[in-house]
Design brief:
The chain is mainly α and about 180 residues long. It has helices at about 10-30, 35-50, 65-80, 85-90, 90-95, 100-110, 115-135, 135-150. Helix 7 (about 115-135) packs antiparallel against helix 8. The longest helix has 22 residues, at about 10-30. It is elongated, with a radius of gyration of 28 Å.
Length: about 180
């Protein structure tokens, strides 16, 4: 979303020109026939103004392929684990994981290009919870199945620690999942 703002030469050129003008104005004022203390003070104020000019931020660290993958894995796994609850009509179990649906929708579809997918996912989430509110077990099961299929939600495959390693550090998103296995010799 910020790719169009990353290279904006006219804006940077104008800022650079303003900085140069500020420096020139302060240096002209510094060498006018007044006392040296005032001149040094004006130069210091001009330099502080130049250093203090805020630069635009071009990074958007909140949206990356890694954060999208993490969101899909963590919250998708929680949603996938609700399959038996949806089939049995266990509304309490599904309601307990309401935040997983919300966080999946916002984390899996954070970009502007994902707006339509996010809207569809939110609509499907609302269909699940509307069916729960109505007490319709068949509608919950159907809406849940449609949500899982439309969003490509799959459980994380378990990893056997005797055959491999599922994660490598405590901050890996797979730590509290079935893939949380570390091979130890």
């Amino acid at each position: 979303t910020n790719s169009s703002n990353q290279s904006n030469p006219p804006n940077i050129t104008m800022k650079f020109s303003a900085i140069i003008c500020a420096l020139l104005a302060s240096s002209v004022a510094a060498f006018s026939p007044s006392d040296r203390r005032a001149a040094i003070g004006q130069i210091a104020v001009g330099a502080a103004a130049v250093v203090g000019v805020a630069q635009p931020a071009f990074a958007d660290g909140a949206v990356s392929a890694a954060t999208i993958q993490r969101s899909k894995a963590v919250y998708g796994n929680k949603i996938a684990s609700l399959k038996s609850a949806a089939e049995a009509g266990d509304f309490a179990a599904i309601a307990e994981e309401k935040n997983a649906f919300i966080l999946f929708n916002s984390g899996a579809y954070p970009r502007v290009v994902d707006k339509a997918s996010k809207a569809a996912a939110v609509e499907q989430t609302n269909a699940i919870f509307s069916a729960m509110k109505a007490g319709d077990k068949a509608a919950v099961k159907s809406a849940y199945s449609a949500y899982v299929a439309a969003n490509g939600i799959k459980p994380i495959a378990p990893v056997d620690s005797n055959k491999g390693q599922g994660y490598s550090g405590d901050f890996d998103y797979r730590v509290k999942t079935p893939a949380a296995a570390i091979y130890v010799r």
